[in-house]
Each structure stands twice: as structure tokens, then as C-alpha cells.
């Protein structure tokens, strides 16, 4: 260890002199370093941490243990074994996994703080006691020397070329680079050649051991900054930031002076509870949709990889039996604690869609395939009103429901204002008058119900057409729909049958993930009655989506629909479902193992498969 | 003199209060989440590898059809992939090689992109030769760092190195609204998931995340607790909070309603800056891609790391979760 320190100290001195000469000349001729300092700004945090780590490593007592390495005739100063390095890093950073420590150690090499004493170009630190590494001299650290430019590289290459006459090893890629740089820096080539000669002369005056060390250090430095072909330059950061650091800081200071001091640093406690609550509430609502958060019924053979849910006890026996009632209850109350566990069985229903090569299966899982809407999609509509509004199919069904209740003009108005708000600028005026005539004028065909205050605001807003002229009215209608119609929609039979049939249709396709047919047989009346409307709407969905002119986002659906024959949806939709409800027979389109009535528990977790 | 002393004192008191607040904030979210079951294991596997870019991949965006995605790279190419079959459906050569922003339109018919050329352009995908039908949407005075379509195909929101964000009308190429207030380059922006389309957040090199009201063009909230450039920002699914990823190796969750930082996601062994963040569908998991080729998966509610994914040969530069939450794609250097 002491040997190494000496060597690096000495070399620092020598190279210190060299550096100042070199740098002075550099700055005179090229004036480069300032740009590299800016680049390093992005690196600053990382660099400080890495250098702190390296310095801690070199600490006599608590640092890494060094070993001497003897090679042939010369004995190279002490070096560190790969495994020691990794073990030390692990203790220092508290990394829990060995791969993480390995990774960090490799990063030290990649960023040039450590270099391997081996001939190959790889910079990965191996967890091997026989792989040795040495610390790079601080002169070459990123924070001190920054990133080199072509001039430095040219000088280095010239030196290598000269040296290669005695000691072969001048690589092809280096030759190539050298010839390129000769052309690029032709005007300064004399200086470069002279500088190279100077440096080599100084080097020859050193002791042999020191010389070897210095050469290795320089080589390692260039390995990092000018990697051979096939290796990536990791230190490079692409685009420099536009504003320099000082500019940003000045602007920030100005802003702070102008900005008023934020009030209420005192009301922190309650505010924190609130933020925590809203975040958790959101999570509770949507957690059913994340496949990895689903519980697995305790089944033999499947590794229990998922989180346990307390309310799961009753459902574990038969996932299928649980599916029926759980699906119903989740509509009536906003109780999600027991819901998701078995709902998830309904929702995930099988494999991750990304496994396998069958496009039809994939499209199915997205809701564009033969099975139509996925249960997950339908279920998501009940989580947030926005999900329903965002989904084209959701809007359609909601609209049908509203038409029955004679309040569909609300949705139409909302959609029209959305189009208006996000539509092209030149159509603002025309659309505004259209909307007014259609929805707001007294005696309008689809007159919406807003209070007079909102009406006056809207009329004032309409005088100067801008995208937010109808904002108040739209918000009012939105809240109205959300509090009233939306809730009723979720409780309606329409929605329930939608969900049920979505589950059924998707369940058919899966191996063994079947749901309780007994249950369905018990509700034949409601399902049969609703069938005509549901299936009719399914068959129409293809057409509806193509014709829908209300929003731009539907055309993604059209594009995809081209891949499947639209007419298939019609007849196949009507017939088999009706069969199912009445007789529980196997539907004509069912394939392989779908007819087994196995409970859900035996399916392999989707992500363990394949 | 007295005034200076007093202001100095105020500053120190403010700092102290902020510290105390900080302690409260972390503890609080974690405390309230104690009853929530922990995530025992997250199983994420590499399913598809999209190879085809010759240079560093700079940006990507999923289509609303949950199947296609667009990516741009340093070799000057914009590629539209079918992620499931891994086929490349379109390959568009761009005039500039550094294209740092790209976005898929909601209808799937257009892609918007831009970069060092300071411009945001739109390419129609349904045309025979999209390159010929390129349309210019807007120009900044510095590079384009990020862009997104604003709910429809007709409006694009861009963030630029000139520290402004601008909302453009696609058809006319005119600026609808501009947003000034950042002190440094804007690096990332995200639109609120709420359907009202009035809020978006942008973050940049001034270490701050600004929340904007699109109607007034004003910055309504500012969060500046990061210690270095903020590279990425993403809204929490509820739209009430957002997370930022920064060069200071931490990700932070900020809540809009209570106007404060709620959680910090960092670890001793995570040294490198975070370049890209995204949430899982429910918002429970935070996927963060870092400059040291790693993807860390954080449990949002408990502020713990649950998984590490290595699958890249270089920095993760951009990462997005598919709109239905079943997959995520991260890009850098030739592999997805």
C-alpha cells in the first residue's frame, strides 16, 4: 500500500509539472477545459460520491487490503484483488445483494478510478481473488482532469506509436484514430509531435517501476475516455445543458427574491395526513389492476410470490366460487379490501399477454380481439370516472345508459367541449357557435341543465373565443354526471351484465380459468334479457367505433380492427352466450382445454411461465 | 447591518422548519402505510428485445393501442415498432441526429419529435412516405427536450432547453400558450391524467418541478427540493401527485394538494442519477431507470426498493409503462 502511495505521489509531482506545461499550452492554443467543466456538472454528484468512496478505500486502516503481485522479472506494486474490492464496496454501501456490490465496483472501473491489471479490454470487476486491480492516480480522476479532447489524445497516440517501435502493442484502432487526428489537427501537428517527444523524454528519466506504473495509468485513462471499438464510452453525456450553471443560479436567485414567501409552514401535520391519504386511496382503488399485486389462492405447487391479503381466507378454497359474489359486491359498496383478491382472478385470467407469439391472443388481452372487452377494462371503468370517459367503448355504453335515462345530452355536451378544447385553433369560433346552438341556447335541441350563474360566465367567456370558454359549464356537467349518472350506471344491470359477459368471454379462452357456471344458470332471466342488448352492442361495436366522430382517439381502435373480420363479432357474439346461459354446454368456438372445470388455483403464475 | 442579521436569522429558521417538515413528511406516509401489505416479490422478465437502433436511444413513447411504440435514436432514425411482434413498422430518417423528444399521438396516426434542431415536427404515419409529409409544429430558441400531445392530435406541448414550455396548435403551427418561469433547461414534462386537461408539470435543470395551469399560463406550484438537475417527471395515476427523478440519485414524490414533498426514494448504494421514471398502473410501483444501467423498482408507499433489474448495456435513458400496465419498455443503446 505504501508503495502505491509513493508511486502515485511521485507521479503526481512529475506529472504535475508536465500538466502545468501541457495545460498552459492547451489553454493557449485550444482553450478547452471550460467546456469539460460544464459537462462534468452533470456528473458532479456521482463523481463526488465515487471519489469519496475511493478515498475511503485507500485509507490505511479501514480501506481495502492490498496484495503484492509478482510478474516475471519485475514486481509490480501492490494491487487489489477483485473479490476484496467487491467485499469492501458491499460493506461500505450496505448493498444487500452481491450483484449490486459487483455492479458498483465495476462502475468504479468504468469511470476510471480503478483499472484492471490484465490484457483484455473489459472493465468489469470480477469477483475473483486472482483478478487484480489498481487505483488510478488522482491526476486522472474525472473531477481533476475532466474529459480530454482530441489534442490530448493525439499526443498520447503519438507517444504510443513511438514507443511501439520498441514495445509492440499499437493497436489497429489506435492507428486509425491517429491517422484521422493527423488530418484533423494538421495545423498543430508540430506542437503535438514536440510535446510527445518531451513527455517521452521525461518518462525515460524515471525509474523502470515508476515508468511502468505511469504507462499503465495513462493507458487505463485512455481506455475509459477513448474505448476501443465495440465498447461504449460511458463517461460521455450526450447533450450539454443550454444554460450554464452560473446562469441558472442567477435566475434562481432572482426568482426567489421576487417570489413571496409561502405561507403555512405550520399546518404541516394535518397536511401530511391528507397527502398520505389521497395517495393511499388512489392505490386502494387501482391495486386490482396491477397484475403483480394479486394474491394467489394457496395452491400446491405454485410458489407463493404475491402479497397476502387479510380478507382472503374465505376465497382461497375455490377461486371460482369466490368469483361470483365478489364481483357483485364490489359494485354496491366502495369496499375494496376483500374485493381485489378474487376479482384479480377474474381480471388477470391467465398469462401475461406478452408471452408467446400469437397476435390474436395478444389482441384479445388488450380488448381488441374476438372476446371483445376485457374484464379488466370494464372493471377499471368503475374505479374512476375518468377511465370510463377515456375509453371509447366505455363512452358508448355509458351513452346508451344515459339515453335510457334521458340525460345523454350531458355526455354529448362534455364530449363536444373536449373536442372544442383540444381541437384545431381555426375551428374554435365555428365550434363554439355550434355548441351554443346545440346545447346552450334556450330551446336548444339538447339543452343542458346549468344554473344561471354558470350560464352568465359562459356567455361572457363566449365573447372572446378561447379554449376555456366553456370550462365552468363543462365542470358543472362533469360533476353532475360523476355524482349522479355515473354512480347509477355502475349499479345498473347494464354494467353488471357487461362485466359478467366480459369475464365469461375471456374465461372461455383460458386453460382452466373457468368461472362458476352454476351461478350463471341461477341467473338466467337477467342475463338472457340483457343479452340481446349486450350482444347487439358488441356486434355494433365494430361499426360504432369506425363511425364514431366524437373523438380522435377511437381511430386506434379502427386501425387494429382491420386485422380481425368485423362480422365475426356479430353472430358468434349472440349465439354461444345464449347457449351458455341456458344449457352450460361447450360453446362452438371453444378450443382445447377450456372445457375442464378446474378451479383457478392450479394455473401457473403467468410470469413464471415461459 | 441589523437587517442583514435578521434576514440571516430568518433563513436559518426557515431551513430548520424545512428540516423538521422533512422528517415529518417521510415518516408520515410510511406510518400511514404500515397497514398495507408489503410487496414480497416482483417478477418482471424481459419478454421482448427490440433491436435495430444503431446509436443511443434517446426517447420513446407508447401508443394508446398498447401495442405500438415509437423511439428515436442518435443515428437520426425514428422507428415505430410493433412491440409484440418486434417488427419495425416505420423507419423515418430525420434531418438532425439528436432527437431527444418523441410522442405518439392519441389516435396513433402521428408522431411528433424534435431535438437539437430546436423544432417540433409531426410525421403522419398513415402516409406512404411519412418523411415527405413532415409538418413543422413549432420552433424554440434552443433544443427540444420533451414533447407530448395534449389529449388530441391537434395540440402539442413541448419543453425546451430555452427554459420555456409551449402549447402549439398543430394545424396552424401557432403558439397557443407559452409557459415561462423555469430558470434552466426544461428536461421533462407530463400532462395530468385528469380529463380536464388543465394541469401539467415540467421539470428541469433548475432543480425544480413547476406545476402549470394551462388556462392562465401561470406556474401555480413550485417544488425545488432536489439537489441536482431533474431529468424526468411523471404524474401519479390519481393526478394528485407526481414523482421526479434527478441526477442527485433520488426520486421524490410531491403532492399537489398539500403542496409538499411526500416521500424520497433513495438509497446509499444508489449512486447514479435517475434518468427516467414511470408508475405501474395502480401507482404502487415506481420504475426508475438510472445512469448506471440499472432499473430500480421502488415501492411507492413504503419508500423501499423492491427489485433491481439489469438488462441493459448502458444507461437507461427513457422508460414508459404501457397504458394498460402490463409491460414496460426502457431504452438505451441498442436494446429495449
From TrEMBL, chain A:
<feature type="region of interest" description="Disordered">
    <location>
        <begin position="537"/>
        <end position="610"/>
    </location>
</feature>
<feature type="region of interest" description="Disordered">
    <location>
        <begin position="1"/>
        <end position="33"/>
    </location>
</feature>
<dbReference type="GO" id="GO:0009968">
    <property type="term" value="P:negative regulation of signal transduction"/>
</dbReference>
<feature type="region of interest" description="Disordered">
    <location>
        <begin position="248"/>
        <end position="271"/>
    </location>
</feature>
<dbReference type="InterPro" id="IPR000591">
    <property type="entry name" value="DEP_dom"/>
</dbReference>
<dbReference type="InterPro" id="IPR040759">
    <property type="entry name" value="RGS_DHEX"/>
</dbReference>
<dbReference type="GO" id="GO:0005096">
    <property type="term" value="F:GTPase activator activity"/>
</dbReference>
<dbReference type="InterPro" id="IPR047017">
    <property type="entry name" value="RGS6/7/9/11_DHEX_sf"/>
</dbReference>
<feature type="domain" description="DEP">
    <location>
        <begin position="60"/>
        <end position="137"/>
    </location>
</feature>
<feature type="compositionally biased region" description="Polar residues">
    <location>
        <begin position="601"/>
        <end position="610"/>
    </location>
</feature>
<dbReference type="InterPro" id="IPR047016">
    <property type="entry name" value="RGS6/7/9/11"/>
</dbReference>
<dbReference type="GO" id="GO:0043005">
    <property type="term" value="C:neuron projection"/>
</dbReference>
<feature type="region of interest" description="Disordered">
    <location>
        <begin position="302"/>
        <end position="349"/>
    </location>
</feature>
<feature type="compositionally biased region" description="Polar residues">
    <location>
        <begin position="339"/>
        <end position="349"/>
    </location>
</feature>
<dbReference type="InterPro" id="IPR036305">
    <property type="entry name" value="RGS_sf"/>
</dbReference>
<dbReference type="GO" id="GO:0035556">
    <property type="term" value="P:intracellular signal transduction"/>
</dbReference>
<dbReference type="Pfam" id="PF00615">
    <property type="entry name" value="RGS"/>
</dbReference>
<dbReference type="GO" id="GO:0008277">
    <property type="term" value="P:regulation of G protein-coupled receptor signaling pathway"/>
</dbReference>
<dbReference type="InterPro" id="IPR036388">
    <property type="entry name" value="WH-like_DNA-bd_sf"/>
</dbReference>
<keyword id="KW-0734">Signal transduction inhibitor</keyword>
<dbReference type="Pfam" id="PF00610">
    <property type="entry name" value="DEP"/>
</dbReference>
<protein>
    <recommendedName>
        <fullName>RGS domain-containing protein</fullName>
    </recommendedName>
</protein>
TrEMBL record, chain B:
<dbReference type="InterPro" id="IPR001680">
    <property type="entry name" value="WD40_rpt"/>
</dbReference>
<feature type="repeat" description="WD">
    <location>
        <begin position="179"/>
        <end position="222"/>
    </location>
</feature>
<feature type="repeat" description="WD">
    <location>
        <begin position="223"/>
        <end position="264"/>
    </location>
</feature>
<dbReference type="Pfam" id="PF25391">
    <property type="entry name" value="WD40_Gbeta"/>
</dbReference>
<keyword id="KW-0677">Repeat</keyword>
<dbReference type="InterPro" id="IPR020472">
    <property type="entry name" value="WD40_PAC1"/>
</dbReference>
<dbReference type="InterPro" id="IPR019775">
    <property type="entry name" value="WD40_repeat_CS"/>
</dbReference>
<dbReference type="InterPro" id="IPR036322">
    <property type="entry name" value="WD40_repeat_dom_sf"/>
</dbReference>
<dbReference type="InterPro" id="IPR015943">
    <property type="entry name" value="WD40/YVTN_repeat-like_dom_sf"/>
</dbReference>
<dbReference type="InterPro" id="IPR016346">
    <property type="entry name" value="G-protein_beta_1-5"/>
</dbReference>
<dbReference type="InterPro" id="IPR001632">
    <property type="entry name" value="WD40_G-protein_beta-like"/>
</dbReference>
<keyword id="KW-0853">WD repeat</keyword>
<comment type="similarity">
    <text>Belongs to the WD repeat G protein beta family.</text>
</comment>
<feature type="repeat" description="WD">
    <location>
        <begin position="137"/>
        <end position="178"/>
    </location>
</feature>
<protein>
    <submittedName>
        <fullName>WD_REPEATS_REGION domain-containing protein</fullName>
    </submittedName>
</protein>
<dbReference type="GO" id="GO:0007165">
    <property type="term" value="P:signal transduction"/>
</dbReference>
<keyword id="KW-0807">Transducer</keyword>
<feature type="repeat" description="WD">
    <location>
        <begin position="50"/>
        <end position="91"/>
    </location>
</feature>
Amino acid at each position: 500500500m505504501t508503495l502505491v502511495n509513493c508511486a502515485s505521489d511521485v507521479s503526481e509531482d512529475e506529472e504535475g509539472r508536465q500538466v502545468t506545461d501541457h495545460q498552459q499550452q492547451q489553454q493557449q492554443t485550444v482553450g478547452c477545459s471550460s467546456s469539460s467543466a460544464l459537462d462534468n456538472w452533470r456528473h458532479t454528484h456521482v463523481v463526488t460520491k465515487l471519489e469519496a468512496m475511493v478515498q475511503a478505500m485507500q485509507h490505511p486502516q479501514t480501506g481495502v487490503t492490498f496484495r503484492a503481485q509478482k510478474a516475471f522479472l519485475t514486481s509490480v506494486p501492490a494491487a487489489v484483488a477483485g473479490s476484496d474490492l467487491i467485499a469492501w464496496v458491499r460493506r461500505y454501501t450496505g448493498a444487500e445483494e452481491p450483484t449490486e456490490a459487483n455492479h458498483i465496483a465495476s462502475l468504479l472501473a468504468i469511470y476510471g478510478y480503478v483499472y484492471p491489471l490484465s490484457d483484455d479490454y473489459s472493465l468489469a470487476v470480477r469477483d475473483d481473488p486472482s483478478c487484480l486491480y489498481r487505483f488510478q492516480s488522482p491526476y486522472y480522476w474525472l473531477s481533476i482532469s475532466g474529459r480530454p479532447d482530441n489534442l490530448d489524445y493525439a499526443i498520447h497516440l503519438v507517444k504510443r506509436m513511438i514507443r511501439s517501435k520498441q514495445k509492440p502493442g499499437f493497436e489497429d484502432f489506435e492507428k486509425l484514430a491517429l491517422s484521422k487526428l493527423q488530418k484533423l489537427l494538421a495545423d498543430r501537428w508540430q506542437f503535438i509531435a514536440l510535446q510527445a517527444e518531451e513527455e517521452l523524454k521525461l518518462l525515460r528519466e524515471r525509474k523502470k517501476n515508476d515508468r511502468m506504473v505511469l504507462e499503465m495509468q495513462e493507458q487505463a485513462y485512455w481506455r475509459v475516455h477513448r474505448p476501443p471499438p465495440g465498447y461504449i464510452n460511458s463517461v460521455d453525456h450526450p447533450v450539454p445543458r443550454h444554460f450554464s450553471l452560473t446562469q441558472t443560479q442567477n435566475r434562481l436567485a432572482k426568482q426567489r427574491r421576487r417570489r413571496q414567501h409561502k405561507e403555512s409552514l405550520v399546518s404541516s401535520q394535518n397536511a401530511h395526513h391528507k397527502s398520505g391519504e389521497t395517495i393511499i386511496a388512489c392505490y386502494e382503488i387501482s391495486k386490482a389492476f396491477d397484475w403483480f399485486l394479486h394474491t394467489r389462492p394457496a395452491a400446491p405447487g405454485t410458489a407463493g410470490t404475491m402479497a397476502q391479503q387479510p380478507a382472503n381466507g374465505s376465497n382461497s378454497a375455490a377461486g371460482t366460487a369466490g368469483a361470483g359474489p365478489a364481483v357483485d359486491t364490489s359494485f354496491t359498496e366502495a369496499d375494496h379490501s376483500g374485493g381485489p383478491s378474487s376479482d384479480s382472478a377474474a381480471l388477470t385470467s391467465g398469462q401475461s399477454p406478452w408471452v408467446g407469439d400469437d397476435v390474436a391472443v395478444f389482441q384479445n388481452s388488450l380488448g381488441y380481439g374476438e372476446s371483445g372487452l376485457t374484464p379488466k377494462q370494464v372493471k377499471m371503468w368503475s374505479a374512476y370516472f375518468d377511465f370510463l370517459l377515456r375509453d371509447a367503448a366505455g363512452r358508448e355504453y355509458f351513452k346508451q345508459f344515459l339515453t335510457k335515462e334521458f340525460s345523454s345530452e350531458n355526455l354529448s355536451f362534455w364530449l363536444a367541449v373536449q373536442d372544442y378544447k383540444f381541437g384545431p385553433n381555426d375551428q374554435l369560433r365555428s365550434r363554439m357557435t355550434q355548441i351554443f346552438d346545440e346545447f346552450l341556447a334556450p330551446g336548444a335541441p339538447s339543452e343542458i341543465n346549468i344554473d344561471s350563474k354558470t350560464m352568465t360566465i359562459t356567455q361572457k367567456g363566449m365573447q372572446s373565443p378561447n379554449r376555456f370558454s366553456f370550462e365552468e359549464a363543462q365542470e358543472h356537467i362533469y360533476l353532475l354526471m360523476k355524482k349522479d349518472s355515473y354512480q347509477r350506471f355502475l349499479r345498473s344491470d347494464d354494467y353488471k351484465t357487461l362485466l359478467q359477459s366480459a369475464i365469461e368471454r375471456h374465461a372461455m379462452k383460458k386453460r382452466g380459468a373457468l368461472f362458476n357456471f352454476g351461478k350463471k344458470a341461477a341467473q338466467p332471466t337477467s342475463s338472457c334479457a340483457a343479452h340481446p342488448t349486450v350482444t347487439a352492442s358488441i356486434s355494433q361495436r365494430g361499426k360504432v367505433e369506425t363511425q364514431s366522430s366524437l373523438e380522435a382517439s377511437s381511430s386506434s381502435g379502427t386501425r387494429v380492427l382491420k386485422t380481425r373480420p368485423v362480422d365475426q363479432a356479430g353472430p358468434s357474439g349472440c349465439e354461444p352466450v345464449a347457449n351458455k346461459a341456458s344449457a352450460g354446454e361447450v360453446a362452438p368456438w371453444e378450443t382445447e382445454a377450456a372445457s375442464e372445470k378446474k378451479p383457478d388455483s392450479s394455473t401457473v403464475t403467468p410470469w413464471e411461465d415461459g | 447591518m441589523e437587517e442583514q442579521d435578521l434576514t440571516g436569522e430568518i433563513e436559518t429558521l426557515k431551513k430548520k422548519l424545512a428540516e423538521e417538515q422533512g422528517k415529518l413528511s417521510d415518516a408520515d406516509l410510511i406510518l400511514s402505510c404500515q397497514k398495507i401489505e408489503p410487496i414480497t416479490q416482483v417478477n418482471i422478465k424481459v419478454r421482448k428485445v427490440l433491436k435495430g437502433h444503431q446509436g443511443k436511444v434517446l426517447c420513446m413513447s407508447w401508443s394508446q393501442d398498447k401495442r405500438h411504440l415509437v423511439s428515436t435514436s442518435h443515428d437520426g432514425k425514428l422507428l415505430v415498432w410493433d412491440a409484440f411482434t418486434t417488427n419495425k413498422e416505420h423507419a423515418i430518417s430525420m434531418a438532425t441526429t439528436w432527437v431527444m423528444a418523441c410522442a405518439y399521438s392519441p389516435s396513433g396516426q402521428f408522431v411528433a419529435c424534435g431535438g437539437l434542431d430546436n423544432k417540433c415536427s409531426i410525421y403522419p404515419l398513415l402516409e406512404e412516405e411519412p418523411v415527405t409529409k413532415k409538418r413543422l409544429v413549432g420552433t424554440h430558441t434552443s433544443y427540444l427536450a420533451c414533447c407530448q400531445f395534449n389529449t388530441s392530435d391537434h395540440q402539442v406541448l413541448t419543453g425546451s432547453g430555452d427554459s420555456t414550455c409551449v402549447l402549439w396548435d398543430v394545424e396552424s403551427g401557432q403558439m397557443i400558450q407559452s409557459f415561462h418561469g423555469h430558470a434552466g433547461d426544461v428536461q421533462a414534462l407530463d400532462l395530468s391524467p385528469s380529463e380536464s386537461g388543465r394541469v401539467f408539470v415540467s421539470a428541469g435543470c433548475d432543480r425544480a418541478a413547476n406545476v402549470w395551469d394551462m388556462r392562465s399560463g401561470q406556474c401555480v406550484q413550485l417544488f425545488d427540493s432536489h439537489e441536482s438537475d431533474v431529468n424526468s417527471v411523471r404524474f401519479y395515476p390519481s393526478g394528485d401527485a407526481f414523482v421526479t427523478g434527478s441526477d442527485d440519485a433520488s426520486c421524490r414524490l410531491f403532492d399537489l394538494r398539500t403542496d409538499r414533498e411526500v416521500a424520497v426514494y433513495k438509497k446509499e448504494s444508489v449512486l447514479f442519477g435517475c434518468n427516467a421514471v414511470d408508475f405501474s398502473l395502480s401507482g404502487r410501483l415506481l420504475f426508475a431507470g438510472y445512469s448506471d444501467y440499472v432499473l430500480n423498482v421502488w415501492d411507492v408507499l413504503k419508500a423501499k426498493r423492491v427489485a433491481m433489474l439489469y438488462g441493459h448495456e448502458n444507461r437507461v435513458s427513457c422508460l414508459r409503462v404501457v397504458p394498460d400496465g402490463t409491460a414496460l419498455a426502457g431504452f438505451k443503446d441498442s436494446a429495449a
